[in-house]
Amino acid sequence: MRDRGETDQSIVATNPAHVIIEPVHYEWLPNILPTTSIPSNDTMDPYNKQKSPLRPLLVAAAAVFGLLFVAYKLFNSESPAVTVNKAIVILNGNSPVTGTVTFEQTSPDGPVKVTGEILGLSPNALRGFHVHQSGDLSGGCNTAGAHFNPYGKTHGAPADANRHVGDLGNIESNGSGEASFVFTDKLISLNGPISIIGRSVVVHAGTDDLGRGDNEESLRTGNAGARAACGVIGLA
Ligand SMILES: [Cu+2]
Ligand SMILES: [Zn+2]
């Protein structure tokens, strides 16, 4: 009995199945269970986006929005259009003539309203009144250049189709040598490529014949004579 019992115990202790099975059984169980149960848990995990089928769509949408934003910024980077509504000229020169002229334009393509108060003129006279090419008065009114003529026309009256843009005709003084006037002109502009801003206004010592003088100078200057006063057309 004693021998048998000892033999039985040694057999049990050295039984390979008994030794191996126990540790293997506990190691495999947790390895198998998680891998088979993870997929359902994974799709419900909001922080694990690596496996989300929406991820490529989100990336594509972000890229499209980014490109649209850049394109929008590029198209809107041009400077905003500024409309000039009013300009002013202070007239002075080598004569007793002084004055102030304002130009007003309510829309960039609309007519311009011209308002003036000029003193020191000959009494009851018509005096040539023009926009000249340049605002450079460094040499007095003589460096203001010719009549502003961006279309290469000949000199004329304000109502003529053929006229310099700068041809504003004559102003008329009263018995005290003062001229107060308001008129509108459709050709001059404070805006766009032929704006008169930065150019000059000249009041002449003589009368503008409006191109009807039947001579060459009439079609250039209207024979308006010397330049009595001038001023640069500035923003008001
Ligand atoms: Cu002139
Ligand atoms: Zn002219």
- Provide mean pLDDT, rounded: 83
CATH superfamily of the largest domain: Superoxide dismutase, copper/zinc binding domain
Strand order of the largest sheet: 7-3-2-1-10
Give the % helix: 25-40%
**Radius of gyration, taken over Cα atoms and rounded to an integer in Å:** 47 Å
| Mass-distribution shape | elongated
Strand content: 15-25%
Please outline the major beta sheet. Answer: 5 strands, antiparallel
Per CATH, the class of the largest domain reads Mainly Beta
Small ligands present: copper (II) ion, zinc ion
CATH architecture of the largest domain: Sandwich
CATH topology of the largest domain: Immunoglobulin-like
N-to-C series of helices and strands: HHHEEEEEEEEEE
Put simply, the count of helices is 3
Separation of the first and last Cα atoms: 129 Å
* Class by SSE composition: alpha+beta
Low-confidence region ranges: 1-40
Family: Belongs to the Cu-Zn superoxide dismutase family.
GO molecular function, one term: copper ion binding
InterPro entries: SOD-like_Cu/Zn_dom_sf, SOD_Cu/Zn_/chaperone, SOD_Cu/Zn_BS, SOD_Cu_Zn_dom
Cofactor: Zn(2+); Cu cation
How would you describe this structure in keywords?
about 240 residues, Immunoglobulin-like, 2 domains, four-stranded antiparallel beta sheet, about 25% strand, binds copper (II) ion, binds zinc ion, transmembrane, membrane
